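ESCALATION

Customer reports they have been waiting on this structure for their group meeting. Please prioritize. Original submission:
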Amino acid sequence: MEATIDIARKRQGGLSPVLGAATLVVLATLSLMVSQIAEVRTVEVVALAATGAFGCLAVVWLVVDRITGGRMQRRVAQLADFVETEPAFCFLTDAEGVVLRANQAARNRFACKDEDRLSALLRDVFASSEGIVYRMQQKALREGAAVEDVTSHSEGYRIYVRAFHADVMLWRLENESQRAGGRTRADLAVISLGRNGAVLYMNPVARELVGQRVKRLDDIFADLPLRTDGVHCLKGSHAGQSVLVHSADIGGGRQELVLSPIAEDAGRQDLMGSFDGLPVPLLKVAPDGAVMRANPEARRLLNLGQGEPGHVAEHMEGLGRAIKDWLREAADGRGLHRSEFLRLTRADREVFVQVTLNRVIEEGETALIAVLNDATELKTLEAQFVQSQKMQAIGQLAGGVAHDFNNLLTAISGHCDLLLLRHDQGDPDYGDLVQINQNANRAAALVGQLLAFSRKQTMQPEIMDLRDTLSDLAHLLNRLVGEKVRLTLKHDPILPQVRGDRRQLEQVMMNLVVNARDAMPEGGEIVVETESRTLNEPMTRDRAVVAPGIYVSVRVTDEGIGIPQDKLQKVFEPFFTTKRTGEGTGLGLSTVYGIVKQTGGFIFVDSVVGQGTCFTLLFPAFETPRQEAPVAVQKEERKLPEQGTGVVLLVEDEAPVRAFAARALRLRGYTVIEAETAEDALNTLDDDELAVDIFVTDVVMPGMDGPTWVRKARERRPDTSVVFVSGYAEDAFGEGSEEIPNSVFLPKPFSLSDLTETVHRQLN
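Update from on-call: job pushed to the front of the queue and completed.
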């Protein structure tokens, strides 16, 4: 028994002091009874002892219940005293929602008495008081407290409930006039909107301002749609009155509008409420543009600090006309309430603002209130959309122009080749013909840049090590940079291979190095560094997402003048250049961009004005299973004969190209049958007695295209060889189309020897 009492004493710390003491008393009584039972050893004594023990226990629990109940009543009384003088309506209820106590404000407003249910008292305020009370009560029991803004029949309330105990809950209700200390909130016009824009609630100030109770926004404002933190004109009895509208989301799909009238007479010379306290950037501006006053929000947006505000033109630009003319029109009452988008002249970042002007009169003098709204995200999205549309249009234009140019260049260079066959080097016209040929080749290179930008350039991909490619190119790059500039190559000792067109990647490096050289007119160092880079997670940068994987990084860094931040995102646009007229075409970096994208890579640029620029290229690593390298077998090059034999069906819609190709093939001994369209070619092949050894056809033509008519013709002539020619890239066949066997692709512009050698290889 002593052990039992010891255990009870140890557990006493987890119980209340009264309950622990009662437990010890009961156990002591039981111990005494047991000792008596041991001495007397009679059944009567045992029964008497048990009855006495349970009687003591009942007395003890009755005492505990009285003490605990008294403590709960004292707690309720203390809470009631604490909230008695609160201006808000306060109630203390039990778990069933029965009112235990109410403060003076609640008793005066609701004429409540004890034992009333809270939901019944609030029924004349809220349409669904039972649902509101039940919902908030359950949330408070789960989380300890709950708060919610509820719109009533005539005014809005903020309801707060706190669960102190499962049987004691404190409710606090604040109406519009009591919130914010009962001072500023009651002076503002407040309107609550539902999910579909319907007007749910208007406080007395809003009803007085609008002139009536309305159901829709159309009955309030004359210049919808609604702009948050914008200036709008009222309808109704106060038609023409300007108000500043601030919108806030109050949950449940509802919005709260705060209307601040803007005065235009000497009696009301400023915004109702506090100019500095409104959560909207505001400027007070003189008609000449001098900033007379700026609230804290405007100072943060304009990055003014605590200095003098200065002039509006010092902080904004990009209106499209003189800012002083814009302000003068507003001061004269023209163009008010029409928003303008301007760009801030902040040096740290690019910020666009939407500015709305309104006129006020102060002591007979006109002033302007400018409401500013940060529109950077909106203008950024707009710029991205316009840029994507422009790039798409230019890409399509470049592809189409390149196709037409390639046809013209094929005819020019082809007929020039025909003339060169009839003139030797001693001929006076030979030099002129060579010049024509060389300039045609330069024009073809320019067309290749256009195609690279539009990602339609024909690629000849191969597996390569960029260290070897750059090492082979180092001699040419050193000649390009000149004597004032040092070129340094740094390579990662373990660099994965990449798959791409060696000629195009060399063009990329030359363009980047030449641009770096031009950025350092006084000399400096250009560092070309390769590195293996592994991305374990997607990398998002400059609106591009780089997937996880292994990449080969190439960085080209210079010590030049740098690129300003406002021009940094334009450097990849075609024909955009910072060089003077005649020094550049503006196609260099756009060509680089097109080649890198066509290869499946990414390009990023970082620059600091006065410190230099770094272009970073990321190419996907090309991984192949390890296997022994096959022994290279050198093929014996065969010299092509001067004359060939066979019948060629030439299909080309461009007459100059068709004329040159036909003459070139006939000069090499081939029999040529010409056709202007695919339909003409199929009609020609209807003659079964006509033997044709090879088709030479354009890919893109009016009517039926090249691959389509070739497939039809091969149904009856399956073994005929094919040479496809096109001014577009090889992907002009269309992705997903079936590959045509025994066919090759010859891009335009092609020379006489290119055409004849390709035909000869296909026939032999």
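Sent to customer with the following note: The longest strand covers residues 524-535.
Escalation resolved.
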